[in-house]
Design goal:
It is a single chain. The chain is mainly alpha-helical. The protein has 11 helices and no strands.
Length: 256
Amino acid sequence: SIMPILAFFLGKRFLSPRYNLLFIAVIAFLPYFVELSQEARMYVIWLASLMLFGSCVFRWERESSLRALIIAFAVWLLALQFHRLSVLALPIFLFPGLMNRSWRNLAEGATAIGLGAIAFRFFGDWVGSHYPDRSQRPLKDVVGEQGLELSSLQLIWEQHSWVVILGIAAGLIVLIWSGREFVQKNWMLALAKLLTGVGLIACAALHYHAGVLALFVATIIWFRLSLHSRYLLYGAFGAVMVMAIFQGVILFQTGQ
């Protein structure tokens, strides 16, 4: 019952009152949420904590106060203990800095992301300490003659390593290219190219969750700069789509 209330505060940041009311109605009457609230309440509470986290971040965007940032980080920690996937919400800490074009907010957001990564690792180690080590677990599948289960990246590397090499090489070229912008003190453009390169490398290594987030932030910066020439950004998204198709076909053929 609290989710429609949180949806109101979350939606009013981007939506007009009419569409925000529609957004609240969708959240309130969505059958999926109703079913989860009866069968898997932890997930509903987790989603509610993430919505509260987003509202706190937008409050920090308005106030630019350290107190608001600490509250937002505390709410994120609350969401983390419900589900480890909360780590994917960490990049939202960069939103106020990008929207306000404030280096102070960007630095504070980056610090929050760093602290969040440490908390995520600590929480993962603490949970993992309550389970047996990997060496004590039974092997599920045997792949090839090695007698060990290979990761998706290892399978692609052994059969079509050129896909990974080309993706990483393209990302490194963009990273080197971004160095010129740093030298010329075009900080925002340099950051956009840097994130584009990081996104390409992450996607080539099958870390699409991190790569797409980096490209998403880079897209926001590119459009905020109002540059007419966005061929690098479009080329990066095209390369990611091609890599995803190739990697998906390879993994499908190997049963992954």
